[in-house]
Every structure is written in C-alpha cells, then in structure tokens.
Amino acid sequence: MKRLAVTTLATLFLGACATAPGPSGTPTNNGAPGSDRYSMDQDMPPEERRDISQLPEPVPKDEPRSRYGNPDTYSVWGKSYRVLPSAEGYRAEGLASWYGQKFHGHRTSSGESFDMYRFTAAHRSLPLPTYARVTNLDNGKSLVVRVNDRGPFHEDRIIDLSWAAAVRLGIEQAGTGRVRVEAISATPAPNVPASKVPTAVRAALDSPPPNVATKTRLFLQAGAFQDRTAAERMQQALLEKLGMGSEIRSTGNLHRVWIGPYADDQQRQQVRQTMADAGFERPVPVAP
To answer: Which of 126, 136, 145 has the alpha carbon at shortest distance from 172?
Structure first.
C-alpha cells in the first residue's frame, strides 16, 4: 500500500515536460497527465528575452535524490519508462527539444519550480537531479545542465532543454537539434555500487569526445533490425545491463543501434569485449 502511494505521488510530479513537444506550433495538451494545469495551449519563448550570454553554467555537485520523480518505473501516454539506478557512464546522441513560457513557474517532476532562464533539462530515465554536458553536434557548442524534470515523451527526442539552454546551444530557432548528452556527475541509488558500470565502459563513455571536425568518429553497431521495436528493446537492454546510452540510425526499413563515438580504436575494442562478456553479441566496428 505504501509503494502504491509513493508511485501515485511520483506520477503527480511527472512534470511540465509530460505535455511539451517543444515550440512546434501544435497543441500540447492532448489529454496528457497534468495538462489541465497550464494556462497556455502552446509553448513559446519568453516575452522577456533576457540576455543569458553571461549566465554561469551549473557547477556539478553530489546531491541527494529528489523525493519526487524517481520511481523505479512510471507511465505516460500508456507507455512505461524505467528510471536508471545511476547516471554514471550515461552517454547518448539524438535530438534535443526545448520548453519555455508555458511551463515557467510550474512544478517540475523533481518538485522544483521550472525556470526557463536557468540551464536545466528534462530526461526520461536519468535520476533527478543529474548534471550532464550537452553538446550541439552541428556547431560544437557545449553546456552543462542540471536535469531536474521528466520528458520529452516523443520517441525521436532524448532530452528537453530549458529555453536558456537552447539559446546557449544555438537550437532555439530550429526548435530541435542534434546533441550528445553525457552524465558528468551522478549520485548512485542506495545500495547500487559505482562499479555497476564496468570500468572499460566507464572509461570509454566518460572520456572527452573526439574533435568531430578533424578526426574520424568511431562507433560500434550493436545490432540491425527491420523492426524498430526490436531496436528499441536492444537500447533498453544496453541501458539496464551496462548503463550504456545508444542511438538508432534508420535507413528505410533498417534500424541500426549505434554506440559511441570513441576517441580511438583501442577504447572501442575495450567496449566490444565488455559487451561480449556481458552476454551481448559482439558489436561491429563502424564509422559514419
């Protein structure tokens, strides 16, 4: 009964981003949980466009887990999501969106108030709070954000940035942008040792990314599927067993699960062996 109460309370805090597809111009309510608490139907930039060029980035530090927003699992729009036991070693690439005025001042999934003028973000599975470095893969701009909310609940996006973070990274006008997300500080869940993520994987995932302008970007292909659902299952397995983020690259009806990039082939080979030791089929080295 206590567990049910905790789960129910946590669901009430699956905050602003549960209804936010970003500034696409489409209605955002759609019957999503908590959508009736917003006075605006569509999200938009702030009316007061503050200068955030000198705003300092959050300084990563160990923080206790939020009392809210960290259930083992939760559901939005009929789909279930799992919260990672630790952010250590998390790294993934995909699309970022942003959210702003509609949610400004409302409670986030962590119970804090959302401030679109601060460098924060929402993520579906990282523990709250988590500090992460987000890098725009198209222009090289990078920023540390504090993840304190849940979302985005759109399959093609991996993180929802505050308006200020989107401006700093140069994706506000486009609405979305290709990014890399790397957890740079984490508070492990109670009784979850830091060694949960194998050392070889942590070393590879935590190392600085290569300069994309001057070096070949090295990846591993964990699998290729005609069914996208099967590719998503592999993504989830990589997260649950190794704490490893991945991306799906689709060409026609073929969906490839890629992990990386890696700074050099030695690092990539370490991860191949670690995956094989964990029971995965040995991934194939690839480069774009």
So the answer is: 136
For 65, the token pair is: 């887990």
Q: How buried is residue 249: exposed, middle or buried, by Cβ count under 10 Å (0-12/13-18/19+)?
A: middle
- The span from the CA of 202 to the CA of 196, in Å, is 10
Phi and psi (nearest 5°) for 275? -65, -40
Neighbours of 2 (CB within 10 A): 6
DSSP string spanning 155-205? Answer: TTEEEEEEHHHHHHHT-TTTS-EEEEEEEEE--PPTT--GGGS-HHHHHHH
Question: Do the Cβ atoms of 150 and 170 come closer than 8 Å?
Answer: no
The answer to whether 108 and 16 have CB atoms below 8 angstroms apart is: yes
pLDDT (tens digit per residue) in 60-90: 988 999 998 999 998 888 888 889 888 888 8
Task: Catalogue the long-range contacts made by 202-207 (C-beta closer than 8 Å, 24 or more residues apart).
Answer: 202/88, 202/89, 203/267, 203/270, 204/262, 204/267, 204/268, 204/270, 204/271, 205/89, 205/90, 205/91, 205/244, 205/245, 206/89, 206/91, 206/182, 207/263, 207/267
Q: How far from chain centre, in Å, is Cα 152?
A: 9
CA distances from residue 203 to 57, 219, 242 in whole angstroms, order as listed: 24, 15, 13
Q: Are 109 and 122 in contact (CB under 8 A)?
A: yes
Task: Report the DSSP beta bridge partners of residue 250.
Answer: 255
Cα separation of 212 and 203, whole Å? Answer: 19
> What are the chain's domains?
12-22+43-185 (2.40.40.10), 198-286 (3.30.70.1070)
Q: How do residues 116-167 score in pLDDT, each as one tens digit?
A: 999 999 999 999 999 999 999 999 999 999 999 999 988 789 999 999 999 9
